[in-house]
TrEMBL record:
This is F-box/WD repeat-containing protein 4. SMART domains: FBOX, WD40. InterPro entries: F-box-like_dom_sf, F-box_dom, WD40/YVTN_repeat-like_dom_sf, WD40_repeat_CS, WD40_repeat_dom_sf, WD40_rpt. The keyword Nucleus does not apply. Residues 184-205 are annotated as: Disordered. Keywords: Repeat, WD repeat. It comes from Rhizophagus clarus.
Amino acid sequence: MFFEFPFDVIINILDLLTIQDIVKLRLVNKSFNNLIIEYGFKLYFTNQKWNMIISNINSKKHDHPSTSSSLNDNWQQKVSFGYTTQQNWKKKFFSSTIITKYHGQSFIPTLKFDKEKLLISIGSSIEIYYFNKNSCGDFNKKKKAEWFISHSNDITDILLGGGIDDEILYTCSVDCTIKQWELNNNNNNNNNNKNNNGYSNRSDYNRQYNLAPKKQFKGHQNSVQSIYVFPDDPLNLYSVGFDERLRMWNTETTQDKMEISLPGRPRVIHGLSSKNKLIGVGNRSGENFTLYYVTSNDIVKYATGIKDHQSTVYAIASNPNLPNTFATGCYDGICRLFDVRTMQCVASYRDPYDYHPVFSVDYDAYRLVAGANRNGIIRIFDLRYNKNNCDNHQELKKGARKNDGWSLYLGNNRSPVYSLQMDHSRIFAALSNMIWMLDFSKYKLNYSNNNSNPCLHYTHAKNWLG
């Protein structure tokens, strides 16, 4: 009966399965086994972008990079890795690593990563860690970070990619400017003894580059707070600033193509749908969240809007593998998941024992992670179980059910989680004085550097007494 469905329907069904479902489906009969071997594993791992992890594993084992063909055929190792990772998420098993610390200093950092590198904005500087190049494949080991001064004042947001080119980086700053950088051109004037931002005389910051910006965008009259570029439309850059303006820039000419007034001071801008060129702006206003769609020659405010937010939206996230959804994190401590097609809130998530605002949020097909504005708390929710009505805030306040999620503390730290990003096996989180990585692909008891402040976690269904 199942194989009588159209082939594209079968493929879409396979896309919805977890790694545990895929493994069990192989045991039904030979037809299902052949289907999973030919399409199931490949679809799952392609969507989750796991080839980078397998590449690292094989490189360590054989001391030389494996060919792409051997990696693609090594499904047994991929399945083993995926199953272990999913089980660790379920059991709350992870290794914790402090990537770097900033002693005696406090920043508002931002981080972004792709399959090759991790970028962190610290003050007016950008740090770059290449996973296969200079991090030894393990952040527990000594590493060498490449870094450069990018602005004359603190960086407020960074954007990696800017379309199909992974070496293009955009940064914006309190100095009212936006800059475009080409990272593969970072071999200019290597200076190892510069004394900038307190980084001198530190062995893990011994590669400073005087990298010149490829382009600059000037026009905002106050701090540029957030920037965004649609991956399939690299010619247009969108920005919001504390001058309460949304601007659209031509990335080729750096010219300001459009300027519109916002209803309040903005916090974040993010693309919600590449198909409809839909943009969301979180701001401090009566609306808290405003929508804009991009036409061929203009930006028009979205007519219907969203009325579900009761307070300022600080964080917005979307997922290219889930093009019909986006998530928001708000000052009221609630994370909300929306369907782009109906513009309706389909689920809301909240830790019933922590009402602090949400400063950062990210999600995948199975779970949502949110960074709180105090005590280094990361909240983790399972998207498949929460069925709360977004309008029923009383239900959120009463408590949580068995599978509603759990939270963890990143050591003894009172800092907000200013920025975070996740993939299938890891969470990277930026606090005011340190950067953390939580790895669910392997489990080992790994505390912070002084071995006295482990990551503590508790489930939302239990009253944690601290």
